[in-house]
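Minutes, structural biology subgroup

Action item carried over from last meeting: produce the structure token record for Cytochrome c domain-containing protein (Roseateles saccharophilus). EB confirmed the sequence was re-checked against the source entry. Recorded below for completeness.
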Amino acid sequence: MKTSAIRLGATGALLVGMAGCGGGGGYGGSSGSPGTDPNPPMTATFASIQSHVFTPICSACHAGAAAPQGLKLDVANSYMMLVNVASAEVPSIKRVAPGDAANSYIVQKLEGHAAVGARMPFGGPYLDATTIGLIRQWIDNGAAQ
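Output recorded by EB:
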């Protein structure tokens, strides 16, 4: 089985820091031998998505007491606030429905076709198709922690 991967290099992290609530994915990269790369490629695992997307991009807004819709995407809270949890905007849809990315609210928000609210990250830049594809793959694979 071939696994898709992207790199979020130092340039991407700098842009995220400057963008506030917005952010991008899949930018830049670093080279080096396997096992020595400080920014390994993103994979379709929760830990990788947390370190490449939720922490550097989403938690700029989705953290603390003022997190939009009460959704905290920091390391301590994101998994328990996403997986099998009803969306605050559309309670009939789970934020992450394990095995069903197409009907997961997070995917609808990231792709910009949710019935309610704005596309995320709010105001852009939006995640690239490869990054969203890895999030979809993680969900379709069962959304394991």
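Discussion: The radius of gyration is 14 Å.
Next step: EB to file the record with the rest of the batch.
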